[in-house]
Structure formats: C-alpha cells, structure tokens
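Protein of interest.
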Amino acid sequence: LRLLELTNLYVTLARLGMHGNFITTKQQQLEEFRLLAPGAVSLTKNALSIRNRPDAPSLRDFMKYPDTVYWKTGTSFGRKDAWSIGWIDNYTVGVWTGNFDGTPSINIVGAHLSAPIMFDLLQALSHNSKKSFSPAQPPDLVKVKVCQYSGYRPSPNCPATKTIYALKSAIPTKECPYHKKYLVEKNTGYLACPQKHYNTGELEDRAFLMLPSVLSHIMHRPADKIPLLGPDCQDINADNTLKILFPNDGTTYVLSKNIRSTNKIPLQAFSLSPGNHIDWFVNGRHLGQTTSGQAFFFAPSTTGKTDFVAVDTEGNSRRVSITITTE
C-alpha cells in the first residue's frame, strides 16, 4: 500500500466504515460505499484512542490539545519504513519517515519518528476542525460477559468477569480454556487426597491459570502448576497423572518380516492433563502427538535398546525402555 491508500483506509474508520476514493483534484467526485460494519469500526476506534502521544504523554496537561486522537504507528520489517496515521474530527494525517534510498536504520521507528510529526500536524489542524457527529451505539453491537483475563466466554472456573461490547455476528462462544479449578487443602495447597479424612473448612476450590507453554513464553508469564498430592499421596499422583500402558518397560519386542502386523510397536498412554494431548519421543526424536488413550503405532527402523518418552500438556513425562530385535 502507498501512504495515500493506507491513510484513506483510516479515513474509512473516521467516516464510520464508509469507504470512498481519495480526491486529488476539484473535478473528482466522492463515491462511497460501506466497507466496514459500524460495530467493528466502533470497537476499533476505542482501541485506537487509549494512548497519548509517545514523545510527550502529558502534553495535554499543559496546552490546548485535541480531546481525542485515534492513531496507530508501524515499523516495517528491517526498519526501512516508519509510519504513523491518525485522525481527529474531520482531519486524517498519514506520515512516512525513512531513507529515500530504502536503506534501513535502527532509529527508524514509527513511534519515535513519524508519530511526533503526525501529532504536531493534528494539533495545528485542530484549530480549524469541525466536531464530528457522535452516533449512538451501533445496533450491531451487544453487551456480553467474558472472562476478565482471556476474553473467552466465562467458565465456572474464571475468578473474574467483565462486560464488553461484541459484534452480534462474532459473540464469543468458546468457553475459557485457561482457568481450571481443583479441590485443594486450604493450608498446604496440596491436592485433596482421597486417603485422608478432612474436617469442614479444610478444603477449598481454587482456580489456577493453565497456559500452554508457548503462550506462557510469549506473555512472559509463568503458568500455574497443577497442584500435587501431598507426600503421603505421591504414589497415587504418579500413577494417575500420566501413565504409559504400551510398550511395557524392560520388555523385548521381536519383529518379524514374515508375519503381518508384527513390525510395528503400539504406543499408548493416559493422562489427566486438561489439555488431553500427549507428545511422543523415541531416542530424543519427536514422533507425533496423540490424545489420552489413543493408540499410535511406531515402525522402528533400527534394533537395539530404544527409549520412549511421553510428555503431556502440563509437562509431566514418563519414560520406558525396550529392546527391539528381529528374527
């Protein structure tokens, strides 16, 4: 996209979703059509209005300043282009900064170079701007309750909820997958042990935030760990969390090329992990993924001692070693 085309798309947002051709001469006529749903525009405008200018966040406290600026910056891959586009009332401004020969620079960043210029231009234009009409809440938006943390439809395990606006055609339907409740000992935090007798008030339901490992890494937030059973219940915890049913540890598998279906080894494991997925590794190499209880057949290409490791979505792992021979 050229700067003019991209700025014109922000004009579409400013005009509540009505998109038209940009006019560069007096002879051209405006031709508009609806490109974006009013509710989608309303939600986008809210997102674009929540930040002050990056180079002077407190400027509006000291001088006359536009009430609301809807804006966004961007920096192209390799830092060759710095963009900033925004609007107030009936003015939209787009700014590009960079080197005309296209050479990159570590200093080419939209928020540092383009945004201050854009804000200065909008401030200058605000003296002649006309207050735009503020329409009523778009009819294609409805209030819905979601999990305060994830934005999914709240499950009974979510500790807090909030009310948001959503498009009628895009109401969240999937229940929050990240909050899980476990019955734990109030004082120790251990999972309630079926071998113990508890008095009233010694147990409580507690919500835990269970994030996939990739998401936890991206968000720089360690996920909660599933509560463990106490030391006197470790044997139960070890058996029930993740268990490999096949192959049996320490056994020898004899492969026969002459008998059908004897050249593959069945892999099967069961896990109580909420994610219900199990990754399989053979001698350190990833084989594939199964669900809890699903059988997976492995055709070995070598003989000798072979290690299998199963890892569930909570990081629990089990290892078995077998010996593979041929007749």
User: Anything to note?
Assistant: Residues 275 and 313 are 6 Å apart (CA to CA). Helices lie at 3-14, 38-48, 110-125, 213-219, 234-241. Residues 235-239 have pLDDT under 50 and may be disordered.
